[in-house]
Design goal:
Blueprint lengths: L1 H12 L8 E12 L5 E12 L11 E7 L2 E7 L8 E11 L8 E8 L15 E5 L1
Length: about 130
């Protein structure tokens, strides 16, 4: 009987699964020479995934920023995401063509704009992702 009570107490002490938990992951970067040979087209994409157990509210307002260094070079709205589903976000921007480009970090940052959105993102540790261009 004691092991059963102990197991029940431990089970109730475990944290409940996150209702919604957003994750920015799987960056993909492609550099293509632009028609104007002085520039390169940079195409970057990333998955925004809801690892939670419930979908986000349909009226949630959120966006994803793309930062080059500390400068936002692109921003786009992200729709509400169902539980265990993902949304592919993509950006395209130009940089001057350089034969030997120094690796440059790009950062994807998910921002929830809705003021009344408690529980719409369980943790914020997965809301930023940096990749090298």
């Amino acid at each position: 009987m004691l092991p059963f009570l102990l197991a029940a107490a431990l089970a109730t002490a475990q944290p409940s699964p996150c209702p919604t938990d957003l994750l920015v992951a799987n960056p993909r970067i492609k550099v293509v020479r632009a028609r104007n040979r002085a520039f390169d087209n940079n195409i970057v994409s990333v998955d925004v995934r809801n690892n939670g157990q419930v979908p986000q509210r349909t009226d949630i307002r959120q966006h994803l920023d793309l930062l080059l260094g500390n400068v936002v070079v692109g921003s786009q709205p992200i729709p509400a995401i169902d539980a265990q589903d993902s949304y592919l976000a993509a950006f395209r921007f130009q940089l001057k063509h350089v034969k030997k480009r120094v690796p440059q970090p790009v950062t994807f940052h998910l921002v929830i704009d809705s003021k009344i959105a408690p529980g719409e993102n369980c943790t914020t540790t997965n809301d930023k992702l940096t990749a090298t261009l």
